[in-house]
Structures are given as structure tokens and as C-alpha cells.
Design a protein that fits this description.
The chain is mainly alpha-helical. The protein has one domain. About 70% of the residues lie in helices and about 0% in strands. A two-stranded antiparallel sheet has the order 1-2. A hairpin with a 3-residue loop joins strand 1 (about 260) and strand 2 (about 265). Helix 2 (about 10-35) packs antiparallel against helix 4 (about 50-70).
């Protein structure tokens, strides 16, 4: 039986991942279709869906890497990278091929060189309005997945590796804030358009990688500080309330304060706001992992399916948005009406499901056969936490 389909799921993580993709859809509907605040406050803060994705990915991937290290089990870089590529490449290359096959229908104002798309480096020098811009966060994740296991193995080889690991995380968090602050001072206050902010701050790996680290911190606690982690999870509902309050506060700050009209966020929000937002999402993630939390115990209808399809939905939704506008307009359907919005969103979800079913699933079944408990390599495919798919990002 296919372990990918039958493995137990965590309601809380499914709910958070479904919420993240809904936020992204709301934001991109404004960017691609309506050009206005179609979903109210959800549109304003929809870009934060990618930040939530970053935290979830940091935890899930961090746990896959740190669990065998903590338990002194063998960890194969080769196996890890093959499993990541089988998860990532099929869907991504399929959508990338669509952009190249139908450039007039899907292409926008310029595109990065092909080699950058093939190597997940197109986020360097990327500007809004270019082709396949929403792949920027995949670049950051893939680069992170490439580097994190190597660093983890290196740190684990030293005496006092646990302390060294925390020092490395702390250094990386500070480095991320310094990088954003320096980028803002160089490109921010003298910038003439938001394009500079996106290119040098929003899309850059150097200024966004630290948002995956709060998720890694959770994985560190889980695997190397078991007693502390268990005590934290006992306060599941407290974490839920605190997390909601923290996220709500960050939403409000990003929406109403320290913003430069027509450009981006001011120095303070640029330097410190992103990691604070990620930390807020990490608190909610801890709540989602707590068996005592309402977020963990309540199963939101449809959330598990949306979470399972989220990577495919993320990749497919923007081109589907773009392709849907003209035919709907020609037959007199207003894309700002409830009916028009419903059609476009439904088609986007269906398109994501098709991509998941026809492209992603066969490769995940292959991965399950390759790395199942009884497979040729004798390695478990995934824990129930790892099965939640990877994501994408905003803009």
C-alpha cells in the first residue's frame, strides 16, 4: 500500500499549511487578476503565507536531518538529496516547461537565464513582473536544503556539537538581520521604486534564509532537548493564544506602521520584522505539534487535502490565474465578482490537484518504493510529520 497516501497526518500542521497557501492565493489574486484589495485584510497580509511556509519547511527538514544525528543513526547525504529532488523537481520542471512552451500566454516582462531556473538560482537579480517570479522562495528552500545537512554533519563531528549548533543558529539569525539592514541602507532609503526592495531584500537568499531557522530551532529542541521540548508542548493552548497574538501583532505592524509608501518596509521592519514574524509562526507551529492544543486536535475540513496538494497548487496557481482572465472576460464574467472569483479559485485548486495526481504522486510512489522500510535500501520513507508536502512563496 502506498505509504505516501496512508500515513497518519498531523491536523495542526495541515491547518497551518492550508492557511499558508490560502494567504498566498489571496495575495496573488490581487497581483495577477484584480489589481486591488479583493479579500480585504487577507490580501494585505497574504504575502506572509510564504513566511509560514518557510517556518514549516525549516522544522520538517530540520527534523529529518537532526533526528538521525541525535539518535546516532546513519544519515546519508546522497539519500537525503535524492528524496528532496524526487519531491521537488517533477512538479517544478513541469511548470517551468509550460512557461517555456507557452511564452506568449504565460511570459511576462523578461526572464532569468534558463540555467538559473534549472539550478534554482533565479532569485538572484529577480524583479517583480518577470517570468515565474513566484519560484523565488523555492530557490531559497532548495539552497537551504543543500547547505543545512552538510553544516549539521560538520557541527556534529565536533565535541560539544549541541552548544556549537546553537551558536551557529544564533550567528545565522544575526547575520540575516545584518544583511537586511545593510541592504536597506544601501538600496532602501535612496530607492526610486519597489523593484529595488524586491531584488535586493525580498527575493534575496542572503536576506531571507533566516526565516527557516525558527523551524530548525523547534527541530533542535525536539531532538536534543527532549525534556524541555515536552514541557513546552504541554502548554499547547497557551502557545496557540500567544502565537495568534504574536502573529496578529506582526500583521498589524507590517500593514500599518514603518512602511514607505510605494517602496517597501522601513529599516526597522525590514531588519527585525521578518525574523519576528517567523518566530511568531514558530510559536503556532509548536502549538500545532502539541497533542493538548486545539490546533492539533481539531481537524479542519479540507485542510489535509489542501495541505497535501499545496506544493502543486503553489506552482500552478499563478499561470492558471493569468490564463483564466481573458476567456472569463470574453464571456462577460467579472473576475471581481463572487462568481468570477469562485471560478478562478476552483480551477486553480483543480489544476493543482491534477499536477499533484499526474506528476507529483507517481514520483512520490517511486520514492516510497525506493526508501520504504522493506525497500532495497532498508530505510524508512518518512515519519508522519515529514509527509506534509513542501511549498512555495509569495510574489
Amino acid at each position: 500500500m502506498n505509504e505516501y497516501k496512508t500515513v497518519a497526518r498531523l491536523n495542526g500542521l495541515d491547518t497551518l499549511r492550508a492557511a499558508a497557501i490560502v494567504l498566498v492565493l489571496a495575495y496573488h489574486y490581487m497581483v495577477v487578476v484584480s489589481g486591488k484589495n479583493t479579500f480585504g485584510f487577507m490580501t494585505e497580509i497574504g504575502w506572509t503565507g510564504v513566511d509560514l511556509f518557510f517556518v514549516l519547511s525549516g522544522y520538517l527538514i530540520g527534523n529529518q536531518i537532526l533526528s538521525p544525528i541525535a539518535q546516532r543513526r546513519d544519515f546519508s547525504l546522497k539519500t537525503f538529496y535524492i528524496k528532496r529532488l524526487l519531491r521537488t523537481l517533477p512538479n517544478y520542471y513541469f511548470i517551468l516547461a509550460m512557461y517555456f512552451i507557452f511564452p506568449f500566454a504565460l511570459g511576462e516582462k523578461g526572464a532569468a537565464p534558463t540555467w538559473q531556473f534549472l539550478t534554482f538560482t533565479q532569485n538572484f537579480g529577480l524583479r517583480p513582473g518577470q517570468t515565474f517570479t513566484h519560484s523565488w522562495s523555492l530557490c531559497i528552500e532548495e539552497q537551504f536544503y543543500l547547505i543545512l545537512p552538510a553544516i549539521a554533519l560538520l557541527v556534529a563531528s565536533f565535541k560539544g556539537s549541541r552548544r556549537l549548533g546553537w551558536i551557529a543558529i544564533g550567528f545565522a539569525v544575526v547575520a540575516g538581520m545584518v544583511a537586511r539592514g545593510m541592504a536597506w541602507l544601501e538600496h532602501g532609503h535612496n530607492a526610486i521604486s519597489a523593484y529595488d526592495y524586491y531584488e535586493h531584500i525580498y527575493y534575496s537568499s542572503f536576506t531571507r534564509f533566516d526565516e527557516l531557522l525558527p523551524g530548525v530551532v523547534i527541530a533542535m529542541l525536539k531532538n536534543f532537548h527532549v525534556s524541555t521540548y515536552s514541557k513546552i508542548l504541554r502548554k499547547g493552548n497557551v502557545l496557540f493564544v500567544v502565537g495568534l497574538a504574536a502573529v496578529g501583532t506582526m500583521f498589524y505592524l507590517f500593514s500599518h506602521f514603518l512602511v514607505i509608501a510605494g517602496y517597501g518596509f522601513g529599516f526597522f521592519m525590514t531588519t527585525f520584522g521578518y525574523p519576528l514574524l517567523a518566530t511568531s509562526f514558530a510559536i503556532l507551529t509548536l502549538s500545532a505539534l502539541s497533542p493538548n492544543s486545539v490546533l492539533h486536535r481539531v481537524r479542519v475540513p479540507g485542510a489535509a487535502s489542501i495541505a497535501l496538494w499545496s506544493y502543486a497548487i503553489y506552482l500552478a496557481h499563478k499561470p492558471i490565474f493569468k490564463l483564466a482572465i481573458s476567456p472569463l472576460t470574453k464571456i462577460g464574467i467579472d473576475t471581481d465578482s463572487v462568481f468570477g472569483i469562485g471560478i478562478i479559485m476552483t480551477v486553480s485548486l483543480f489544476g493543482g490537484w491534477l499536477l499533484f495526481r499526474l506528476v507529483e504522486t507517481p514520483f512520490m510512489e517511486l520514492r516510497a518504493r525506493m526508501y520504504s522500510v522493506n525497500g532495497p535500501n532498508g530505510q524508512a520513507m518518512a515519519t508522519r510529520e515529514e509527509v506534509v508536502p513542501k511549498q512555495g512563496g509569495a510574489a
